[in-house]
Amino acid sequence: MANDQVFTFHNGVAVPNIGFGTWQIPNEEAYGAVTIALKTGYTHIDTALAYKNEENVGKAIKDFDISRENVFITSKLPAQTKGYEATLAAFEETVSNLDVDFLDLYLIHAPWPWDDIGKDCTEGNIESWKAMEKLYKEGKIRAIGVSNFAESDIQALMDACEIVPMANQIPFYVGRVQKSLLAFCAKHNMVVEAYSPLATGQILDSPKLKKMATKYDVTPAQLCIRYCLEKNTLPLPKSTNEERILENSQLDFTISPEDVQILDAFEDIRAK
Question: Distance of CA 63 to CAs 39, 67, 194, 244, Å?
Fold first, then answer.
């Protein structure tokens, strides 16, 4: 795994260019999965309070032979948690669960609660962001960002707060490229992190994708993850299978510009 390759946030903090995602990994499986990921060479682990697995994610990192400074840990403020004091309390819960003194990256998980998508929570997001700015200035978080935020959600923070988000973690994969949002993030020097880079597995059976993967002598999953890097996004593949965890990090190839264009033109699988 090429951990010498990094993305750099606009504050100068570097993050390994592939992360190990733990969404949908139950707490009882998280210890083993994260241990395998670390053994395989991942040094960037992504979790969230909402995943309910922070405890075993943190325990796996602590038990593994790696110093805290050499592993990049991301967690997230729950989507329904809005407000200054509520954010400070949620952060303390997360660092307690993980048993760490600081986070490398902390994100607002979504601009609205998952059970009320689209609700206007601008005021709450601003107050949460101000709390995160405080934690950042105190050195408790090395970088702060958002997740699932559209351009207007990010703009609202920039209009009311001091610090431009350093990252936006969004669903990004072959067939869902979010061109406008990517351009907006690039304009403001925000790293885009690509969660569900395999479209939760839905795209891997595509005959066109399989044919292209064969051309590069890689798996469809490797092609999809490499595509994220070709689009200057940071992929967060997830698996609990040791062979796939290793495979997902072996991306020592490049996709030709012509083939990137073909992948750009894939139909969004959500429309099917």
Answer: 12, 10, 28, 22
Catalytic residue among 42, 51, 106, 195: 51
51 is catalytic: yes
Q: What is the CATH number of domain 6-267?
A: 3.20.20.100
Residues contacting residue 258 through CB under 8 Å, at least 6 positions apart: none
CA distance 248 to 264: 20
Cα–Cα distance measured from residue 47 to residue 54, given in angstroms and rounded to the nearest whole number: 6
Rounded CA-CA distance 178/116 in Å is 22
Ranges 44-48, 89-93, 247-251: which has the least confidence: 247-251
Check: CB of residue 48 under 8 Å from CB of residue 76.
yes
pLDDT in tens, 72-130: 999 999 999 999 999 999 999 999 999 999 999 999 999 999 999 999 999 999 999 99
